[in-house]
Amino acid sequence: MAVTGNGGGDAGGRGPLAGLRVVELAGIGPGPFAAMLLADLGADVVRVDRPGGGGLAVDPAYDLTNRGKRSVLVDLKSADGPARVLDLVERADVLVEGFRPGVAERLGVGPAECHARNPKLVYGRMTGWGQGGPLAQTAGHDIAYIAVTGALGMIGNPGEPPAVPANLVGDYAGGSLYLVIGVLAALQHARATGTGQVVDAAIVDGTAHLTAMIHGMMAAGGWQDRRGANLLDGGCPFYGTYETSDGGYMAVGALEQQFYDTFVELLGIADRAPARKDAARWGELREVVAARFRTRTREEWTAVFEGTDACVAPVLSLREAPQHPHLAARGTFTEFGGIVQPAPAPRFSATPAAVTTGPAQPGADTGSVARDWDVPALVTKEVD
Asked: N or C: which end of the chain has fewer CB within 10 A?
């Protein structure tokens, strides 16, 4: 496992986005994660925290979504709060906010005010429902957003409630990653034309977009609109998870014929496995596979399949994952400031990224930001 340091120092400066300046208006969930990704890739991200904090009660020292950033304290509801943010905006390339529609405008830091100070600014807006539509002003969380897009309804066993995939599918995949894609695309446009724009990243839009292939398969008759009845949703006996004798699980993804042949051979059922193309016998095949997996421990089955093309892997916990030999060899996880955490991704041959500082502590970087961004009023305000 790679070890990169103990925190501190300037934020930004390494990675392909070195030199990019980002203002993040503090929020929770997908907005901070998107800004973390930009920071991971080298951007100088200044998080504008509110006095007294807000959102979920996460100890700032362990909030990894704020790693690599710097923090200043600004009360946007104070008389001069908006002016301090606009001073930063004038020197920034990107702003990221995750308020409900209209809140940034009421606080005096909406797109109109920001573009008046900096026409090239890319203004990234992260919401669940989007800037418009009947539910735009309604509260919500990941689970509701993925529910209405059809994504949640696909996940889980038939006859059981849908399985909740943490907040990975909505907040981070459908939200944060689409915001980052939108911001980078808008930056390209701004640099080519000199004109910034607003990026409306809605979790419902991004999550729906993630289901594009499934919609195509459904239109072609290759996907049933119900849980646990399809090739990729656990309905297929050679694409799913199986319990081992010690209560662990193995994940099987032997979709192609050549991989399936290797799978049944190594599992020891090649002589009695029902024909895999006979969907009517999938239930029987599943029972044979399940019974065989229950004869050995997860560690024993891992040893059987390791390094083969059977497409089988152990299901690891979050604490176990960093110790997996492949992930350890690649440095997929890193340790920084005593916290084991995912390393920046993806990887770049010419401009490698790395974790350079720990989670930003609210207001701790006011002096350095005031100096580096040439906004002395930040320090004056703090002294006052």
From this structure: C
Under 8 Å between Cβ of 47 and 69: yes
Active-site hit among 87, 93, 171, 233:
171
pLDDT value at position 53? 74
Per annotation, catalytic residue among 80, 115, 141, 324 = 141
Tell me whether residue 171 is one of the annotated catalytic residues.
yes
Q: How far apart are the first and last CA of the chain?
A: 45
Considering the entire predicted model, what is its pTM? 0.93
- What tens digit of pLDDT does each residue of 44-64 get? 999 999 998 765 667 899 999
Please say whether the beta carbons of 333 and 345 come within 8 A.
no
pLDDT tens digit sequence for 324-373: 999 999 999 999 999 999 999 999 999 999 999 999 999 999 999 999 99
Burial 18-40 (b: 16+ CB within 10 A, else e): eebbbbbbbbbbbbbbbbbbbbb
Q: What is the mean pLDDT of residues 127-131?
A: 98
pLDDT at 2: 39
State the Cα–Cα distance between residues 359 and 26, nearest whole angstrom. Answer: 13
pLDDT at position 152 over 60:
yes
Residue 329 burial by Cβ neighbours in a 10 Å radius (0-12, 13-18, 19+): exposed
Q: Assess whether 49 carries a catalytic annotation.
A: no
